[in-house]
Amino acid sequence: MTNSISTDICIIGAGPVGLFAVFEAGLLKLRCHVVDALPQVGGQLSEIYPKKPIYDIPGFPDILAGDLVQNLMRQIEPFHPTFTLGERVERLAKLEDGSFQLFTTDGTEIFCKAIAIAGGLGSFEPRKPAVESLENYEGGRGVYYMVRDPETFRDRRIVIAGGGDSALDWTIFLADVAKEVTLVHRGTTFRGAADSAEKVQKLHEAGRARLVLSSNVTHVHGQDGLEAVTITANDGTTETLHVDAFIPLFGLTPKLGPIGEWGLELEDDAVKVNTLDYSTSVPGIFAIGDINTYPGKLKLILCGFHEAALMAQGAYKYMFPDKRYVLKYTTVNGVPTL
Amino acid sequence: MTDEVRVYVEEAPSQRREVVAPTDMALSLMEVLKASGYDIQATCGGMALCGTCHVEVLAGPALDEPSDDELAMLESLPVMTQGSRLSCQIRINNRLDGLVVRLMPQNT
Ligand SMILES: Cc1cc2nc3c(=O)[nH]c(=O)nc-3n(C[C@H](O)[C@H](O)[C@H](O)COP(=O)(O)OP(=O)(O)OC[C@H]3O[C@@H](n4cnc5c(N)ncnc54)[C@H](O)[C@@H]3O)c2cc1C
Ligand code: FES
Q1: What residues does the 2Fe-2S ferredoxin-type domain cover (chain B) (predicted)?
Q2: CA of B72, closest CA in chain A: separation in Å?
């Protein structure tokens, strides 16, 4: 069944700028739905540098990127935004009345009156290992690049590949859920959190998960879905293992992705905007944050916040061309709720 | 002593392009490659956090050992070879003259 959502503004991208746009739109009593390809909110702040301090957010001499994301989530709570996470917006259509319909990779449909693209560097896509025919098993047929719902793996035989924190963390978690878990790592030492590496070693010794070091998954096999993988050790010896799922976890890398194909005027992989209201070349579609470009553009969170405020005004005018909006300070009226 | 070195980028097997890099500006190899028109994302701006500046060192002088942070990032990538390095962690200096590197695809 397709999931269908109806809202005022659909925000593509749950990075800091997309999240703050919810606040600015909320002040104008506009409802927002936020979509992100990642399973969590925060964009680059959550994906690349959650533990790094940021020093140039007004009012915060320093704040960890992860904490800034949490604060933004608290700040937008009164506006009850809704989220579709772990799905990428693939396609959009402009309807006759000037509103839009968006389609995600997983078949979610979003009807909205205006769109704010806050897509940052583009959607984060998994780094894939160079294994032949891997793509034949994508889309629920045995190869998964992220664990969205651990229940997918209940009582299944799985192989995880990777040497970072997420490979270790999911090995530990899924050891209790799956029927068999094997972690394949190219090296001999883990540089992820030391206690996670220790836990995996203990699970291995207790026979609850298997650890295969100095090895890579080199082949995948199966007719309709994944049936087996071949693991090749650095010394050339191979082993073929019957499995139901293969989960390569090598992190994510940003790609502009579908945004480049929506007919918007672009310059160097960024969306050109009018700095009056951050509107794009298509009326009703706005672009804010790292994804846009204009003379003097700075890729800073602060600048994205400013753009979000002006975008919200522009979107309001697009939706209600006949209504006049009078700027009110939150200090005077407090934060209205939706 | 000159104030520039030559590094070579292997664009295809047996096809190497010379890149001249100044040694007196404290640049990283990533910055030099980017300035020379190579398509390197370098999302994190050189902090060993994103892995999008991954190169493979094919030949040339011995480099300093990678730091723990660099190794941790490299080990998290799907492909890591004997010569894998993050170009943002390599500082341009006189000892680099003659280095040969290959850019690794952005998603590996
Ligand atoms: C290491 C590092 C340090 C930094 N330090 C600072 C700093 O100190 N101060 C500062 O101001 N800035 C800093 N920046 C820059 C800052 O992170 C960016 O300016 C900011 O993240 C931009 O926010 P954004 O919301 O526009 O985009 P992003 O944070 O990139 O978020 C965009 C989101 O959109 C999603 N998306 C894209 N396309 C689609 C699609 N089609 N469908 C669904 N989802 C999609 C992506 O998955 C992503 O989650 C730093 C950046 C890095 C990498
Ligand atoms: S630029 Fe990000 S790791 Fe080198």
Answers
A1: 3-107
A2: 5
Altogether, the residues listed in chain A come to a count of 338
- For ligand 1, whether the C-beta of A65 sits within 6 Å is no
Residue A6 in contact with residue A108, Cβ under 8 Å?
A: no
> CB count, 10 Å around CB of A285?
23
Closest alpha carbon within chain B to A51: B49
**Side chain identity at A252, as an amino acid letter?**
L
For CA atoms A167, A172, A177, A183, give the dihedral sign: positive
Within its chain, how far is the Cα of A66 from the centroid?
15
In this prediction the ipTM stands at 0.83
CB A167 within 8 A of CB A176: no
Answer yes or no: is A145 a known binding residue.
Answer: no
Q: Which residues of B touch A168 (CB under 8 A)?
A: none
Pocket flag, ligand 1, residue A32 (CB < 6 Å): no
Q: Give per-residue pLDDT as tens, A293-337.
A: 999 999 999 999 999 999 999 999 999 998 877 777 787 777 877
* Mean pLDDT to the nearest integer, B2-28: 93
What residue ranges line ligand 2, CB within 6 angstroms?
A: B 30, 42-44, 46, 48-53, 73, 86, 88
Query: Among B49, B50, B108, which would you mutate to test the A interface (most chain A Cβ atoms within 10 Å of its Cβ)?
Result: B50
Place of tokens 């010569």: B83
| CB A141, CB A133: distance < 8 Å | no
